[in-house]
Design brief:
Shape: elongated
Strand order of the largest sheet: 1-2
Order of helices and strands: HEHHHHHHHHHHHHHHHHHHHE
Strand content: under 5%
Largest sheet: 2 strands, parallel
Number of helices: 20
Number of domains: 2
Helix content: over 70%
Radius of gyration: 27 Å
């Protein structure tokens, strides 16, 4: 009996060590192994575009910047897994409280308390597994920024709170529908840990009389207006403060190359699309139908007035307006520089020797 008890305690301690040590272990692996690989990729991209930059990879991925985020995420995981692993030692002393019973506080709530603890444990597991998967993926892609650990800790806390609120919505009522929903509460709580924003949207829609949900994805400047932009891409850009097309169009190319896993070709394409969307807004779909996806497509060949007239008719936009937009785009020095950089990453060395683009030998760009 003593051997079984000892084995049980040891196995629980091992689980705590594995989950608690995951965050610092991945951070150390990234700093010791992956950062050097990211430096090589960044230098290669700059060479392809004939760019020079004062930005350095180590400025964004130094050990000092990882300390607090990793400590935060590790503390959240250690506290949660320790409590849930040794739940039998704590559960007997857990009394009625506002956190576990909410509006039902003060009543006979032992069943609701047990339900709340089960919900919290499953939401934690879902949030941790999703974060662990995300961290591993970012580690392999040389994209493990310090704020990923803050996001992981906040995600776990947010998911736990949302799952707990959902359990209060269900409460202790009777009835076949409620009982059926309660029987799935463990799975729902786990999925809340994996996708807290979606469950939060469900709760917002449930109480839409009191809360009006945002409609950012329907706006003309939503990141989803960019061709090839997935939910994962959008979330990654959101992490570095890019919330819409206008933010993306004004972003520093070199900063994006360092702080995201996306290649120079893809970033230049996105920025080119974003700049065109900022100019033409809701007309972007019409422009794409005639083969103009970005500002680079518009300035690739110099357009005459009759050609602009034809484009205006095809895109269902007034010709004077298009002429004005075209003049602004072609006179924008930043767009001209980005076009030269795009040419640099999309052509071979042999092609560059045979074509004269006016591309400077060395350009310094920070914006």
């Amino acid at each position: 009996m003593l051997v079984v008890l000892t084995f049980s305690i040891v196995s629980k301690i091992i689980i705590i060590i594995i989950i608690g040590g995951f965050m610092p272990l991945t951070a150390m692996t990234f700093l010791k192994v992956m950062v050097s690989n990211k430096k090589v990729e960044f230098k290669k991209a700059l060479d392809e575009m004939k760019l020079s930059s004062s930005r350095k990879v180590e400025d964004s991925f130094s050990a000092s910047k990882f300390f607090l985020p990793v400590a935060f995420a590790t503390t959240v995981c250690l506290l949660a897994i320790s409590y849930f692993t040794f739940a039998e030692q704590f559960i007997a002393g857990t009394n009625d409280n506002l956190l576990l019973t909410g509006a039902f506080f003060g009543e006979s709530n032992k069943p609701l308390i047990y339900q709340s603890l089960a919900v919290l444990s499953m939401a934690f597991l879902g949030g941790f597994l999703w974060s662990a998967q995300n961290i591993i993926r970012r580690l392999i892609a040389y994209d493990l920024a310090p704020n990923v650990y803050y996001s992981a800790g906040i995600r776990i806390i947010l998911a736990s709170v949302i799952a707990l609120v959902l359990s209060f919505v269900i409460g202790e009522e009777s009835g076949n529908n409620v009982l059926s929903f309660k029987s799935s509460l463990g799975a729902i709580s786990f999925l809340t840990g994996m996708f807290p924003e979606r469950v939060l949207s469900y709760l917002i829609n449930l109480y839409k009389k009191f809360v009006s949900p945002d409609k950012l994805n329907d706006e003309a400047l939503s990141l989803y207006k960019i061709e090839g932009m997935s939910m994962q891409h959008k979330e990654r850009l959101n992490e570095i403060g890019i919330d819409n097309v206008q933010n993306l169009s004004e972003s520093s190319l070199t900063k994006l190359m360092i702080e995201t896993p996306f290649g120079a070709r893809l970033l230049l394409d996105w920025i080119g699309q974003a700049k065109l969307i900022c100019y033409v807004k809701d007309h972007i779909t019409a422009f794409r139908k005639i083969g103009i996806r970005s500002v680079f497509d518009l300035i690739k060949v110099e357009k005459t007035e009759p050609q602009l007239q034809e484009i205006a008719e095809s895109a269902e936009i007034q010709a004077p307006l298009l002429q004005n937009l075209y003049d602004q785009i072609t006179n924008d020095k930043g767009i001209q520089a980005l076009y030269r950089f795009q040419y640099g990453v999309n052509t071979t060395n042999e092609e560059r020797k045979t074509k004269d683009t006016g591309m400077p030998v060395e350009v310094n760009i920070e914006n």
